[in-house]
Every structure is written in C-alpha cells, then in structure tokens.
Automatic annotation (TrEMBL):
Keywords: FAD, Flavoprotein, Oxidoreductase. The keyword Coiled coil does not apply. This is LLM class flavin-dependent oxidoreductase. Its cofactor is FAD. Coiled coil: none annotated. PROSITE patterns: FAD_PCMH, OX2_COVAL_FAD. It comes from Solirubrobacter deserti. Pfam families: Bac_luciferase, BBE, FAD_binding_4. Belongs to the oxygen-dependent FAD-linked oxidoreductase family.
Amino acid sequence: MADYGHELVFGTFLTPQAANPESVVALAQLTERAGLELATFQDHPYQSAFLDTWTLMTWVAANTETLKISPNVLNVPLRLPSVVARSAASLDLLSKGRFELGLGAGGFWDPIVAMGGPRRTPGEGVTALSEAIDIIRQLWDVTTRRGVRVDGEHYKVIGAKRGPEPAHEIPIHLGAYKPRMLRLTGEKADGWLPSQAYMQPGDFAPANARIDAAAEAVGRDPREIRRMLNVNTDDVDQLVELALEHGFSTFILGSDDPYAIERFGQDVAPAVREAVATERAARGTATGPFGRSPAVRAQRLPGIDYDAAPVAAVEPGDRAYGKVRSSYSYKGSPGLVLQPKTAEEVSQALIYAREQDVPLAIRSGGHGISGRSTNEGGVVIDLGALNGIQVVGDKALLGPGARWGHVAAELGKHGLGMSSGDYGDVGVGGLATTGGVGFMSRLHGLTIDHVTGARVVLADGRIVDADEELLWALRGAGANFGIVTEFELEPYPVGNVVFSSMAFDASRPAEVLTRWGYRVENAPRELTSFLNLVTQQGGPVAQLYSVYAGEDTDAAIEALTPLLDIAPVLDQQAQLVPYPAVVAPRGGLHMGGSPTAVRAGLATHLYEPTAQALEDLLATRESSWLQVRAVGGAVNDMPADATAYAHRTQNFSVNAVGRSSIERLNAAWDEHVYPHMDGLYLSFDTDPRPERLLDAFPEPTLSRLRELKAKYDPDNVFRQNFAIEPAGSRIGVNATP
C-alpha cells in the first residue's frame, strides 16, 4: 500500500487535432469551466494531422484564466532542451505561473528520424533525457552568474546565459515505464506520468518502489515526487483505490468527449476527493507540506527549530534558496527564510523567530544598500508575498513586499502617483518606513509624508492599526517599531512628466556641484534633480537625471535649460513620458556581492566649502561614485516634529560609495565631508558606529523615539537597522549586516 499524501488534482488529456483546431481549444476551456485544474496535450511533432503542441498550449493559456497547461509528454528528441527551457519559462511568465513540463525520451524513432531527429537506443534516450533536464534546470536557475555548462554525450551547452526565470518553480514530470526511466524519475523529476492503458495493476507497486529507491539513493524524500496517471476510467471507486493503494494523486482523463469531461469535473472529482479525505483522516495519513530530504536536512544550522516553522519556509539546500538568501548588495546565508502570506502569518513567524537562538532580519523588497535584510545563519522574515496594491477611493493600500515600480503602474491607471525613490525594484516596506526621496520630492514631499495609516505586527506578535503616536514613529524610524503588513497612503494626481538625462565633463567637481546646487534650489518645485559624480579613466563625469513633474513642456524646458551651463555638456535628452515609465520595475533577482561601504549625509546648501569637501573626498580615491539628490521644496514644508524624520531644512541628500572597506571610507568621509553635513538619511549609510543614530534622529526626536521604543518594543526585538535602544538603555547600533 502506498499513499504519498499529495493533494488530489484532476485534468484532461486532449488530442491536438488540426482538422478542427477550435474544438481542442474549446475542450480546454470546458476543462476549466468543469472545475478541473489541468489540461494536457499529446506531443507528436511528426504527426501531420496534429497541431504543434507548443503553439496550441500558448493559445490555450491565452484563452483561459486559471487552467494549468502541460505537454503529455514533450518529445525531447525533436525539441532542443535549451530552447524548451526558454519557451517554458516564457509561457510560464505569460500565463502567470500556469505551466508544467512533461518530458519523454521518445519512442517512435522512424518518424523522429524522418523529421531530422536522432535515432537513439533506449539507454541513449534515458541519458539524453537526463542531460536535457540538467540543461533546462540550469537555464531556469538565475541565482548564479555563471553560464550553463552541460558537456554531455548527446547535448553540449557550454556557457549559455541563464534565464528568463519562470514565474514559479515549474515541475518536470516524466513519462516512464522501464527501470532506467523510473530511476531517472526518482533521481531528478518532480512527477511520474504513465498511462493506465500501458500498465497492469500489478505494475504500480514495483514502479513506485524503483522510484522511491532511486530518490532515497540521491538523498531525496520520495514524497517529493508526485504520482500522476493518464486514466481511461471515471469510476470513483477505482480512482479512490489508485489514490489510496497506489499513491496516485493526479488523474488525467484521456477523452475528447465533452460530456465525459464535464462529468469528470463536476461529479467524479468531488466524490473522489471526499472519499480519499475521509479515508486519510481515518488512517492518519500525513499530507503535505512534507519534510525535507536527508540531503537538505544535513545543511540545517544549530539554533533553529526547523520542524516547528509555522509558515512556508525556505532553507539551505532547497531549490529556491538561491533566490531568497541575498539582498541587493549583500550575499547572505540565512539559516531559514520564512515567507508569510498574511498579517496573521507574519505574527506567527515573528513569535517563532523570537524563540530561535539566532539573528533576525526583516525583508520587504531586499533592495537596501546596507544588506541588513539578510544575515548569516539567522532567520529572515521575507514579506515578498504581501505585495498587494489596491486603490480605494482617494487612498492606496500597499503591501510591504510590493515594488514601487508596480505601485506606480497601478496608481497610473487611476491618474495618480507617489514619489518613491528612483528605482522601480525597491520594496514598499523599507522606503515607506524610512523617508522616500524620489523624483517628485520637491513638489510633493517624501513618501512618508503621505502615509496616513498602517497595520503593524508588534514585537509581541499583536496585530494593531497604528495610532497617532505609533504612526509618527513609523514614518522615519519604522524598522525599530514593528513589521508593517499594510500601508495606507494618499496618492496625488500625476500624469505625464518630462524626464531629462544630461552628462557633463566634471573635471572641476566642486564647481559643477556649486552651480548645479544653486540652480536647483532656485528652480520651480516641479523640478527635482539627482546628480551622480562618477570617476572614470578620462576624469570625473557628472550624470544628471531630472524630472519636471508636469506636462507643460515649455515650462519644463525653461526649468531645465539653466542646468545645461553647469559644465561642458557631453550628452543631453528629454522626453515626455508617463511617470511609471521613469521608475519601471526591472524584475531583477537580488544576488548580493561584496558588502557595500556607503556614507550618507544631508546638506542645507552646496556652497563652495561643502562642494570642495566633496571634491576632496573624490581626490582620496576612497570613493569612486558620489550621488547628490535634491530635496527641499515640499519636503521642508513639513514641520520637523511631524514625523520621526526630522530633517526639514536641508536641500540635498549626499551619498558616497566606497571602493573598499567602510573603515577606509569612514576615515576619508570624516576628515573631509562630515564637518559640512547636517544630519543623515539612514537608508544610504552603512557606518555601524553609535553616533550615526543621533545624526539620523536629532534631539528631541531621538528621546521621543526611545520613550516609544520602551512602550512598543521594550525587549529591542527590532534592533537590526540603526537600533534605537528603549528609554533607560544604552544607545547603540547593531553592526551586523
């Protein structure tokens, strides 16, 4: 007896007849309407009476909404694996994660050869399929920058670039009957997909045993492999027996009869599910999610009770680990990444994390410069699944895991916008609890200035709607007070904007900074400008990016023109674009790198002494990249005590990226620049010294924050990002990235 405890899935196995192409599409749509989850299609490229299966699947995916699509099974000898990988990822992305991949080694060799394919022995077919799986999986894995390399007997892929990444982890199912194919299924596949017509009841147990043994031999849990079956029966009792006694959990009806499909979905599937659930409850059958394989469990770290994790989690050794371990700048190695989907699950995750004897990190989008949204050997609470974006009346409700590029696109549909940094992949949570210096800040202020409400998980696990004093603290020092699971913001009307990019010879950096600073301070508020000074072999170059937040192109030209004489112009362009195009999401995967040394400060003006200090910093060669962002304008309309971000007199935010260590950058920054700065925007500073806290939160703000910290987080659970010690404690900053 074998019951692997998988959730039951029901689908159809459809014939791709070319004579009436509309009929097979209609049957797939009927599959969806009947409540079935999966439609699969034969793949016989040499059969001239059939539609091309890949083209058909794409068409069906475009004409359905929830239906999963899969070949049953793909003829690998006539489908180049590297192309299959890209095609599968593309279809998965276009269908929003609705694709599964069934593969077969081939069997009808005469027509395969007639089509230009190879002739392979059974053993060669298995070897070739194994190589194909390796190629496909490597091309889907974008967690490394190394090119794909499979130097096999039948396929040689040497250095192919990886990607695109599928929308979800595409399962690979193998059509297998013989011992070698069954072993391959256990070693590398996610599912076994035979046909009932080709097997006898006595064949199931030996086949399952071969798969299980092969899985265990490579350190896999046999329950990782779903047992699927193309069936030619809709008898409820027989299907129940196949589930409970032979381990099958996906039943795919081989029929093009619309009445049979309808009955299978509306009558048979519910009856089988009910009977199996009842018997499993009586037997005490364990159902998913299942434990990790021995190979994964062997990588577990001390200090974490892995089996007690209360929500979905990824740990070292899991296939998805490479996608969640790192932040934008820091390649972390957390012991466990929790992935809650609701506020209640965030609460459960936090309570669990507090019980572990390891560091804690909270991640929204993971784009932070400091790398504090991951760690070494600790627990990370990843809020990426809380990514909702909803416009309700004059409010926007945003999940912390949403990306600002997606927020801009959704708000843009309603003629609204929100200034929120300069890069669309930045997560909502980190920016909306820190400040939010964006391309429309001089006209509309910081992002936090428009946050009107928040739902928060406090340090003790309570879920609350922020009251006035907690909301005050969250807007500027939010990382210290809880985990925000939903933000309420007031967006404002935003249509097209003028986006300008200019490049200048910056061989005299101080002069460039002084001229630019003066012109920006005196520009209309619609103009917000960011300047990058980059050291190159031919000398420093200034890159200037500006947004005029309005559609009046004549007014934009008038505002932008004075910027052209700050230095010799190397390049310039401007265009009228929708604001979402300026901060479009890139969809990039955070893969980390070397920890980045960055110092930050705020300046009221870029007068000659300040500008010269920044030029002197570049001359030390400890920084090769300097960015200055214009603030002021509407940012300074807000009273200093209105939010925990108290810097309401400065006009510029300055950031310097170091070439090597933070210690060396600190020495150069402290000598040349620090005396000219007035405050700190903490999202861009990686200096762990305690005095940075007072730069970020000048008195009386810091004292007020410490009093509130004692109320909301007396145990200082949230101490990972510029920790504010509760009142009565020593002030300090956690230096761990």
